[in-house]
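Technical appendix A lists one of the benchmark inputs used to test multi-chain prediction within the project. The record comprises four sequence entries:
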Amino acid sequence: MTKALSGRQAQAARNDEVILAAARAVFIADPGAPISAVAERAGVGISALYRRYASKEELLRRLCSDGLARYIEESEKTLADNREPWLAFGAFLHSLVDADTNSLTQRLAGTFTPTPDLWRDAARAAELNQAIYARTKEYLRPGIVVEDFGVILEQITSIKLGDEARTNQLRHRYLTLMLEAMHRPGERPGGGSELPGPPPSSDELTDRWRA
Amino acid sequence: MTKALSGRQAQAARNDEVILAAARAVFIADPGAPISAVAERAGVGISALYRRYASKEELLRRLCSDGLARYIEESEKTLADNREPWLAFGAFLHSLVDADTNSLTQRLAGTFTPTPDLWRDAARAAELNQAIYARTKEYLRPGIVVEDFGVILEQITSIKLGDEARTNQLRHRYLTLMLEAMHRPGERPGGGSELPGPPPSSDELTDRWRA
DNA sequence: GTTGGAACAGAACATTTCGTTCCGTTTGAG
DNA sequence: CTCAAACGGAACGAAATGTTCTGTTCCAAC
């Protein structure tokens, strides 16, 4: 289909990626989708899936792991970004919306049992997140905590309207709004009222990986 | 159990409300929940459900209808609110978060076929929504359209963390943030950057009632 | 006290969904 | 030509779930 890497092994190599891409698309659209939907979308039979992954769980773990890796990658890229911190922070969140890492990590959590590797990656991600928070803190509105990031991203990525492109567009729209709300207000008088209730805690967030 | 309205008919009358309350709680927590979960939560048998509703769909329609009614009620209350429009608007959205009307209307849509009555109520709700928008427009940040309300509420109510009380608390937290972002910025220099992409349209929203 | 029927609990049933296995076929390398 | 990797998709079995059905309870009218 794509190129002339002749041979059955070439097709297999191509299928590796085709299947992963299909799985990403399908499970992002519907985390509870059946595995047959992945095969259909990839244009392969079911056995092509089971040749690569021993079970549905294993496929989901792979997707989650890839998502986490992507998240970590974007985080490191952000920490290496020498532009103004607030600008870099905004670009960071927008890139996470584009990559839709939340749908691959948080939303898939609970549908499978995490491996130690996953826990390690998650810890690493939290670490980087904290570093970004520390660097951005002085620009953030007082009262915003690092745990807010995840919850806000989750809200944003809960939006689903129209096709994929339109959904993405709208997510950026509301992220833009949210980013302004997260920014430390200037000396304007009315801005920055007290946020009600305690902020989300780290424990509350990680608890969902067990449910 | 509760009071001394003796007789089997009294129990039946009480069950009417118990069942509805249970159904609300169950389907808000999980729109795809089995009907047996409702019976369990209500502490009744399954036949107590089927005595009142001919099918699961009918129960869902009832919940949706009640949710819409509640939405309309809050809208009218808001239009009759003589306080400063922005204050009334904020109270409006907060009350909708408390009532969780979105989970009963939007999120249940698509799981059943709407009746003409439902369409009428939905049209009425949209009308009132428009009236509230008109009254609040001058306080809103330019670029915000009436269709934003629904999408924003949907984001907010997508939050689910901890028990019901905690979830509600966090929803109000992020609604507070969002409300500030929706407010027309003062004369501050940096505020109010352009929102990317076209806003959600009315058609996009109603299309989901058919899917 | 008797009894008819409304109301109910929950087992039983039929259907659907879905993960997984299995069998027969294709295909390309040696 | 041959063999096995790779594959397509039907088949299978388990689980979930909407609905129906059976037997039981309990109030109210006579």
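Chain A touches chain B through 39 residues (CB under 8 Å). Residues 6-9, 11, 34-36, 46-47, 50, 55-56 of chain A lie near DNA strand C (CB under 10 Å from a C1'). Comparable benchmark entries are summarised in Table A2.
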